[in-house]
Amino acid sequence: MTSPARQRCLRLRERLSSYIDGDLSPSERRLVAAHLRRCPCCRTMADGLRHTVDLCHKAGTASLPADVKRRARARITSLLAEEASATPARAAAGPRRKTKAAR
Ligand SMILES: [Zn+2]
After folding, report:
1. pLDDT value at position 84?
2. Has residue 16 been placed in a domain?
3. Which of 13, 23, 100, 101 lies at a C-alpha separation of 20 to 30 Å from 81?
4. Is the residue at 101 inside a domain?
5. pLDDT value of position 15
6. How far apart are the CA of 57 and the centre of ligand 1, in A?
7. Residue 96 belongs to a domain
8. What burial class does residue 60 get, using C-beta atoms within 10 Å of its C-beta: 0-12 exposed, 13-18 middle, 19+ buried?
């Protein structure tokens, strides 16, 4: 039910935080960077994540405990999975309303 393009976006988004943290291999980095140039939805998400990371650094919490990072990543991944099963291929339409289940 999920389009191949959407699948690509979801797989990429799982790696966004590693990309922003500089934890990907050079070839993976190139793939993510190329996708971000083409895909406004993922670019918006990457910008948001980068902004959040910046805010954390500025707030003096640059070194989050490893378990907090791990839980945040797991939560993001599960939210993306929920989103993928709940919304049929509409990501290509635009980056609007991305936090529907945020409460
Ligand atoms: Zn994408």
Report:
1. 87
2. yes
3. 23
4. no
5. 92
6. 26
7. no
8. exposed
Q: Where are the alpha helices (DSSP H) in 1-103?
A: 4-14, 16-21, 26-38, 40-58, 66-86
Q: How much distance in Å is there from the Cα of 31 to the middle of ligand 1? A: 11
Across the 103 residues of the chain, what is the mean pLDDT of every consecutive 10-residue run? 85 92 94 95 94 83 80 93 77 52 50
Hunting for tokens 């994540």 — which residue is that? 49
Name the residue range of residue 63's domain.
4-86
Give domain status of residue 103, yes or no.
no
- pLDDT on residue 34: 96
Q: How many domains does the chain have?
A: 1
> If you measure from the C-alpha of residue 103 to the centroid of ligand 1, how many angstroms do you get, rounded to a whole number?
25
- Global pTM? 0.55
Determine contact, residues 44/95, Cβ cutoff 8 Å: yes
